[in-house]
Fold each of these.
Amino acid sequence: MTWFTEALYADPSHEGYAQTFYVSRELVRRRTDFQELVIFETPHHGRVLALDGVIQATEKDEFVYHEMLAHVPLFALGSAKRVLIVGGGDGGILREVLRHPVEQVRLVEIDGAVVELCREHLPFLSAGAFDDPRARVIIGDGIRFVAESMETFDLIVVDSTDPAGPGEGLFTEAFYGDCKKRLAPGGLVVTQNGVPHFQPQELARSGRRLKPHFADVGCYLAVVPTYVGGFMALGWATDDVGLRRLTEADLAPRFARAGFETRYYSPAVHAAAFALPPFIAALL
Ligand code: SAM
């Protein structure tokens, strides 16, 4: 394989547009029980993970997505102790969540091969997080977990694939309603919600399906170059309307107390991430 061309997104409106990577070495290609998994090396983006032809993470810019999907909710909440990650089998979100003084993290990943092969070929993503005594990895369907578990969480991070294949059910109202049942009072759900430039209806649909269950539904933005199309939308749902209104001044002492370095997240970026251009705000 000399070139990898990213398959069209689940949304057919993506027709006729793709991104292509030069492949210096293919490390693994496997048809798992759930999806086609490929990990390959590139000259400019380092190692890359793709599932069913869609880019999931690249060594060069994974820090953007994983920092923003973990630190914005955790610094907003300020004292989250119990976190659920749905999906996230590559370990990037788990790595960032564990930098906070959380007590327990459950990671529910449907495809054990993702965890196994990312630990082997993309160890920088989890960076030892899977061995942290606070982390518990459950190989199973996140839909079933939130429907059947009796546990409650301060934060639920839905780090899913796009709404196709095993990830499709993670964008339904039933799933969002079950997430609400799993949340402690004042808790927060954040979601991977696509690139509005190409997948506007994905964000609009999630907004419609979250609103019956949460008082405050919105999104915040990050620019992840290899999630092609400009801004990436990260869904936000909570009953605590104040969480979204924290200012840089509110967040700066929390970030300073945390005492760790980041490459994309900062209190200023956190506050600015909720400033939505009208074409995105209109979707919610
Ligand atoms: N950062 C990536 C993105 O933004 O597209 C997502 C990373 S992670 C690799 C996505 C994970 O969601 C995959 O490992 C996939 O197996 C998992 N997944 C999809 N559907 C799931 C489900 N119903 N329950 C649990 N995990 C699921």
Amino acid sequence: MALRIMTISLALVGLAVAGAALAQDAAPTTPGGKAVLTRQAHYKDLAKAFGGVGAELRKDAPDKAVISAGAAMAAGLATDLPSWFPKGSGPEAGVKTAAKAEIWTDAAGFAAAAAKLQGETAKLQQLAMAGDIDAIKAQARAVGGACKTCHDAYRAPAEQH
Ligand code: ASC
């Protein structure tokens, strides 16, 4: 009897935990929460565009048209990137986000990091159109460096996402 009640209690606790997890993953309704999801979708597009360039560069005969298209997409997204961080879309948004508070408390530093990405992706786009694969590869590394510099300072480590 006691065991049975305990089993039922444990099952209820399990349901409550699952319910809380569901509640946390439910679509956000606040502007900040919505902005987090929009931002994450933009970053997926950016990773796909830049990742596509990298994948093409690793081929024996990279397709310059594919590289140019990916570089143009990445440069366009980088231009928009500062608008993905409205106030209220940080750790206080109430949804899971890796965006650190420093994005807003160190707004000048973040703006500089975004400008760096814009410069490096614009350069990648130009070199992609020029078509020298070795130069494009070197510049792709510079873009990756701009991603990393910003992530190191302004994005929480993966285990905290
Ligand atoms: C990518 C991607 C990133 C960056 C980063 C560079 O392709 O999705 O977040 O490059 O890994 O350090």
